[in-house]
Amino acid sequence: MPDLKQFLELFNPLPGNHYIQVTTCTDETTDALYKLMQNAGGELRLALYTDTSIEDIQRRYPEAKTQQIRNFVHPFRALPRDNDLVILKDVFHLHQNKSVILKTAYTTLSNATELIIMQEKGTMDIEAMKELLEEYEFRSPNYIDVLENYDLITARKMHMWGNGL
Predict the structure, then answer these.
(1) Strands 138-147 and 65-69
(2) Pairing of strands 109-120, 150-157
(3) Residue 1 falls within a domain, yes or no?
(4) pLDDT in tens, 106-152
(5) Phi and psi dihedrals of 26, rounded to 5?
(6) Total structural domains in the chain?
(7) Terminus-to-terminus CA distance in the chain, angstroms?
(8) Residue-wise pLDDT tens digits, 11-53
(9) Does 112 or 155 have the greater pLDDT score?
(10) Nearest to 87 by CA among 152, 12, 16
């Protein structure tokens, strides 16, 4: 199991916070985030791009709200300003409509909150991703090297900037 200490230091959940991990499969990061949110009195939500049953995942994370998306054409579902953090793990590069994914993430984030894009190390053009995030009104994109097998980029949705949502 990888050391997730530095990864978890990226987060500061408060009671009532909602984090959503959008992914193709759960892993150690999901386990760690679920425990972190449970201990803080928050909620981890899972949006899974899979065409297999998610019943096992729902049993493994009984307090998490879970949704299933069957293909990479459709976005995940989330209400406006309903999440305090969006984590796109190993899905962004696979999705057929990257624009709609970024717009959905922007809309569901509360003001002054973060988006994290995680992809298997070496599969993401870091500088191009930073530029794309800026185009979609995410500010201060940063590359963070805290997980051995993943590249992470964080960016912020700022209050009343850009789209103003």
Answers:
(1) unpaired
(2) antiparallel
(3) no
(4) 999 998 899 999 999 999 999 999 999 999 999 999 999 999 999 99
(5) -85, 155
(6) 1
(7) 39
(8) 999 999 999 999 999 999 999 999 999 999 999 999 999 999 9
(9) 155
(10) 152
DSSP secondary structure letters along 92-124 = TTT-S-HHHHHHHHHHHEEEEEEEEEEEETTSS
Residue type, 10: L
In a domain, 5, yes or no: no
Is there a domain that residue 56 lies in? Answer: yes
The parent domain of residue 129 ranges over: 18-157
Structure tokens at 60: 């493994």
Tell me, yes or no, whether 125 lies in a domain. yes
Residues paired with residue 144 on neighbouring β-strands, in sequence order: 152
CATH number at residue 61: 3.40.50.150
Global pTM reads 0.94
